[in-house]
Amino acid sequence: MSLRELATHGDLLEASGGDAFIRLDIPQTLERPGYALGQAIALPRKTHTRRLGLLVMGPPDDAGRLVRALADQERRPAGLAHVTVSRGSLATVGSHLPLGDGNDWEWMYAAQAPPRAPAENRLTSLDESDRADIGALLAEANPRTDARPFELADQHWVGARDAGGQLVACGLRERNIAGYPILTGITVLPRERGRGLGLAVTAYLTRRAVDEAGVCTLGMYSDNAVARRVYHGLGYTGDHLWSSRRLATFPVTATR
User: Fold this and answer.
1) Averaged in consecutive runs of 10 residues, what is the pLDDT profile of the chain (256 residues)?
2) How many Å apart are CA 64 and CA 15, to the nearest integer?
3) Does residue 230 share a domain with residue 121?
4) Quick one: 139 and 206 in the same domain?
5) CA 219 to CA 53: how far, in whole Å?
6) What is the residue range of 129's domain?
7) What pTM did the predictor assign?
């Protein structure tokens, strides 16, 4: 098997068999080429954090051989900060990269608008005047989230307050780096959980996204079984299981 360069988004789609993650989460214009070997593909890309990472998809043996071939042929880019790998391929890829800490997470999408949830009548739109309240809620109840209130354009926040005016639930719909809607920051204060607020926030934002763009995407940490049940119940599908790890150290290598 030989290493093949994937110069365009269409090349990536073809090599991946039309994979939904490639279609909905990778920009049409690639900053750097991807590569394929056997049934595995690798793509250097900047994520929403703007740090350069390496995405590796495919069966374990091919994924490991691909990452090794990138190094052997001096096509592994310099400055990689992290790697995201199909869950079952972490060990083989990790044998060729200096993996640090990280997390396991899942990606999925919905292409049909879910029905209205009962607690949606408690939701209101949030704006920059609510930034401090959103930040306080995220810090207390969802500190791992990547949501950054109003730091990017085209953010649509919704939330719910209790009788005393405290923000007790929130969620965000924005655009991912490929331009498709993505949900993040879905958060409910612990004392308010079990009342359908997380379901309401997700259903409302998903429905708006599907109505406007035909699809909605999201990512979740794999240890959140409650969220997974909510998302699947609302019609999210196409689950991709990922392992993301920082690179502990990395020698500078040639880039192409």
Assistant:
1) 94 97 96 96 85 94 96 88 95 94 97 97 98 98 95 94 98 96 98 97 98 97 96 98 87 38
2) 17
3) yes
4) yes
5) 17
6) 113-234
7) 0.92
